[in-house]
Write a structure and sequence with these properties.
This protein is mainly alpha-helical. It has 31 helices and no strands.
Length: about 575
C-alpha cells in the first residue's frame, strides 16, 4: 500500500510539472494561511482533468474546519475518501472532525487507519499532530508529542512538515525567532519547500525586508510556476515600496492562470505609478468592462482609468471619465479622495473652465486640510483666473504652514506684486507692495545676488512709484544690471531683464530731465538737466544693445544722436 501511494504521488507530481500548478496552488495558499485564496483556486480547478480530487477534497474539508463548518468538512473528507481510498489524509480529516465533536476514541481509530495505509510516514504523523494541535494543543499535548517523535524518527527526521508545524506553534505564541529557525530548518531539509520559505519570509519581513525578499527570490528560481510564490514576491516588493520591481513581478504573475482579479487591479495601479500610463489605462478599461458594477474593483478601476487620462493629458476624455466617476455608486466604506477632486480640477482648468476647477480644488482642501500642497494648486488656479488677491491669500496659507522651500518665498512675493500691479481700487496696493518687498528681501538675505530675486525687488520698488519721477527703483535696477553683468551669457539669456531695467531708468531720467526743462527756463545750462539727459541717452543705448531688433527704439536712439550733433 505504501509503495502504491507514493508512486501515485510521484506520477501526480510529474503531470503537474508539465501542466503547471493547477489545484496545487490552492493547497499552497491553504498551507500559508490564505484561506479565501485557497478556496477560490481549489474550487476553480476542482473539475480539471489534472486535479487529484481526493487531495483537493481533503483541503476543502480543512478549509471548512477553519470556518467551523464541521458537517461540510465531514462531507468533503468523505468525498475525498471515495475518490481514493488509499489516500490517508481524508481519514485524518475525519479524525479531526471526530475530535471536534468530542469523540477522541473514534479519532484515534481513524488516525490508526491512516497510519496503516502509509506506514511509518513522517508526513502522516505531522498531519495527525496538526489535527490534535488545531483542536486543542493543551488537552492533546501527549498525542502531539507522540506524533512529533514519530515524525522525527521516520526517514531520519529530515521531513520538513513536522518542523513547519512546530514553527507554526511557536508563531502562535509570538515566538518569532524560534518560529523562523524552525522554518529555516524545514527548507534546509527540503530546499524546494514553498510553505517553509514563504512562512520564513513572512516571519522575517518586518525585521529584515530584504532578507525576506531574497528568500522568496531564491524559492521562485526553484519553483517558477508557483502562483503563491510569484504573488508573495510581488506583494513584498509592493509593501517595501519597490514599485518598479513590484510592477515587473506582478506582470509576470498575472500571466499565471491562477492569479486573482484583484491582482490585475493592483497591477494597473503599479503601472500607473511606474508612469506606464497607456498600459495602465488599457488594463483599467478592460477591468471596468468585465467586472460587475457591484464589485468594488469596478469603481477603483474607473478611478484608475481617470487618473491615467489626466496623466496622459487627454483632457476631453478625462472630463467624461471624471463625470462618470462622480456619478458612480460608491462601494461600501469608500469615499472620494482629494486626488479625485484635484485631478478633476486640473482637467477643468486645462479646458478653460476655471471657476468650476476652483470649486473642485476647494472641495479637495475640505476633504484633506492637512495636505497643504493643495493650497499651492488652488493659488495657481486663482492665478489663471486672474483673481490675484485670492491667489496670494492661498499661497500665503501655504507658506504659513511652514512646509515651504526657499523658492516659495519668491513665488509668494510675486503673488503679492501681481495684486499691487492690478489693483485699480487703491485698497490693496500699498499693503501688497510691502508684503511683496518683505518676502523678496527675505529670500535675498538667504540667497543673495541672484538675478531672479533682484528682478523681483526691482519690480516691487517700481510698483511703489506713483509718478515717473519718483525713481524708487533706480538703485534696485542698477543692482540688477550689475548682477547680470557678472555673466556675459545674460546679454542673450536674460535680455528681457536688462530691457526691464534699462527701460525703467530711461523713462525715469527722461522724466526728470523733462521736469527740469518745464521748471527752469535756462535748463540747458542746468548741470542736473544735462546729467539726466546723458543718463537717459545711455540707458536707451544700452537697451538697444540687448534689443537690436527693436526698430522703433533704434530710430529713437538715432534721433537722440542727431539732436546732439546739432
Amino acid at each position: 500500500m505504501k509503495f502504491k501511494f507514493l508512486v501515485s504521488l510521484i506520477l501526480l507530481g510529474g503531470s503537474l510539472s508539465a501542466l503547471a500548478q493547477g489545484y496545487k496552488d490552492g493547497i499552497e495558499y491553504y498551507k500559508v494561511g490564505q484561506y479565501d485564496n485557497a478556496k477560490e483556486l481549489l474550487l476553480r480547478n476542482l473539475n480539471d482533468a489534472s486535479t487529484n480530487k481526493s487531495e483537493a477534497y481533503y483541503y476543502l474539508g480543512c478549509l471548512d474546519m477553519k470556518e467551523n463548518k464541521v458537517a461540510d468538512a465531514k462531507a468533503n473528507f468523505e468525498k475525498g475518501q471515495a475518490a481514493d481510498a488509499n489516500n490517508p489524509y481524508n481519514l485524518i480529516g475525519l479524525g479531526a472532525v471526530a475530535l471536534k465533536n468530542g469523540n477522541a476514541k473514534e479519532a484515534e481509530e481513524l488516525f490508526k487507519s491512516a497510519q496503516k495505509l502509509v506506514k511509518k510516514n513522517p508526513k502522516v504523523e505531522a498531519a495527525i499532530a496538526r489535527a490534535y494541535s488545531e483542536t486543542d494543543p493543551v488537552a492533546y499535548a501527549k498525542q502531539i508529542e507522540k506524533a512529533t517523535k514519530n515524525a522525527k524518527k521516520y526517514e531520519d527526521g529530515t521531513d520538513p512538515d513536522i518542523y513547519i508545524l512546530e514553527g507554526d506553534m511557536n508563531a502562535a505564541e509570538k515566538k518569532w525567532g524560534d518560529a523562523a529557525g524552525l522554518y529555516e530548518m524545514a527548507f534546509n531539509f527540503d530546499p524546494e519547500n514553498i510553505e517553509a520559505y514563504v512562512k520564513y519570509a513572512n516571519t522575517y519581513y518586518n525585521v529584515n525586508p530584504e532578507m525576506a525578499i531574497n528568500k522568496l527570490t531564491e524559492i521562485l528560481a526553484k519553483k517558477p510556476n508557483s502562483a503563491l510564490v510569484q504573488r508573495e514576491l510581488a506583494e513584498k516588493y509592493y509593501k517595501n515600496e519597490q514599485w518598479a520591481k513590484a510592477a515587473v513581478q506582478y506582470g509576470k504573475y498575472i500571466e499565471n492562470p491562477n492569479h486573482f482579479t484583484q491582482d490585475r487591479s493592483r497591477y494597473a495601479f503599479l503601472l500607473f505609478y511606474g508612469q506606464k500610463y497607456d498600459e495602465s489605462l488599457a488594463l483599467s478599461k478592460e477591468l471596468v468592462a468585465t467586472l460587475p458594477a457591484t464589485d468594488p474593483q469596478h469603481f477603483y478601476m474607473k478611478r484608475m482609468a481617470f487618473y491615467n487620462l489626466v496623466a496622459l493629458k487627454n483632457w476631453n476624455e478625462a472630463e467624461v471619465a471624471a463625470q462618470d466617476l462622480f456619478n458612480s455608486q460608491l462601494p461600501a466604506g469608500v469615499k472620494y479622495e482629494a486626488k479625485d477632486y484635484t485631478d478633476y480640477a486640473t482637467v477643468l482648468k486645462e479646458l478653460g473652465k476655471t471657476q468650476e476647477a476652483l470649486a473642485k480644488y476647494e472641495k479637495a482642501v475640505e476633504l484633506n486640510p492637512d495636505k497643504v500642497e493643495l493650497l499651492k494648486e488652488i493659488s495657481d488656479a486663482y492665478l489663471d483666473a486672474e483673481d490675484y488677491i485670492k491667489s496670494a491669500d492661498f499661497f500665503q496659507k501655504f507658506v504659513n504652514s511652514g512646509k515651504f522651500v526657499t523658492n516659495d518665498l519668491l513665488v509668494l512675493s510675486q503673488r503679492y506684486s501681481n495684486v499691487a500691479a492690478t489693483d485699480t481700487t487703491g485698497l490693496h496696493k500699498d499693503a501688497a507692495i510691502q508684503k511683496a518687498l518683505h518676502y523678496a528681501d527675505t529670500i535675498n538675505s538667504l540667497v543673495p545676488n541672484h538675478p531672479r530675486i533682484l528682478f523681483q525687488i526691482a519690480r516691487c520698488k517700481m510698483l511703489m512709484d506713483k509718478e515717473n519721477t519718483d525713481g524708487n527703483a533706480v538703485e534696485a535696477m542698477n543692482n540688477l544690471v550689475a548682477c547680470l553683468d557678472q555673466d556675459p551669457a545674460n546679454k542673450t539669456g536674460r535680455a528681457n531683464d536688462y530691457i526691464f531695467a534699462y527701460r525703467y531708468n530711461a523713462v525715469y531720467f527722461a522724466s526728470m530731465a523733462g521736469k527740469i526743462k518745464k521748471e527752469d527756463k535756462k535748463y540747458k545750462d542746468n548741470p542736473e538737466y544735462n546729467e539726466f539727459l546723458a543718463k537717459m541717452k545711455e540707458s536707451y543705448e544700452k537697451w538697444l544693445e540687448v534689443d537690436p531688433a527693436n526698430e522703433g527704439l533704434r530710430k529713437y536712439v538715432e534721433s537722440l544722436n542727431a539732436a546732439d550733433k546739432k
